[in-house]
């Protein structure tokens, strides 16, 4: 019984943490938070209390979308660095 309660709580804790991380990312745009979000979605997908095909499929789709966001975020950062370098060189 104790093990079941721990597993259930662990699942709920992961969901709560994900919501917090997603909110922090929306506020800051911090790329490090993107990596944490992807890792937590992965943990939620693999958690023993994450049951049901739909929830696991949703986790898989979310991981893909957040990984795309990570790549785009990295690309945007590179473009900003290049733009700053060019601007600094010109001025």
How would you summarize this macromolecular structure in one to three sentences?
This protein has 91 residues and is mainly alpha-helical. The chain has helices at 2-28, 31-46, 53-90. Helix 1 (2-28) runs antiparallel to helix 2 (31-46) and helix 2 (31-46) packs antiparallel against helix 3.
Describe the protein's architecture and organization:
It is a single chain. This protein is mostly helical. It has one domain. 89% of the residues lie in helices and 0% in strands. The chain is built from three helices and no strands. Helix 1 runs antiparallel to helix 2. The longest helix is centred in the C-terminal third of the chain and has 38 residues.
What is the radius of gyration computed over CA atoms, rounded to a whole number of angstroms? 18 Å
Q: Terminal Cα separation, in Å? A: 68 Å
Average pLDDT over all residues: 80
> Which overall shape is indicated by the principal axes computed on the Cα atoms?
globular
Domains counted in the coordinates: how many?
1
Question: What does the secondary structure layout of this molecule look like, with pairings?
Answer:
Layout lengths: L1 H27 L2 H16 L6 H38 L1
Helix pairs in contact: 1-2, 2-3
Overview features:
3 helices; mainly alpha; single chain; 91 residues
């Amino acid at each position: 019984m104790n093990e079941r309660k721990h597993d259930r709580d662990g699942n709920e804790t992961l969901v709560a943490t994900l919501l917090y991380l997603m909110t922090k990312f929306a506020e800051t745009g911090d790329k490090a938070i993107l990596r944490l979000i992807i890792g937590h979605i992965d943990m939620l997908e693999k958690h023993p209390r994450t049951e049901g095909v739909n929830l696991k499929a949703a986790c898989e789709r979310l991981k893909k979308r957040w990984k795309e966001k990570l790549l785009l975020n990295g690309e945007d950062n590179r473009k900003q660095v290049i733009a700053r370098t060019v601007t600094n060189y010109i001025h």
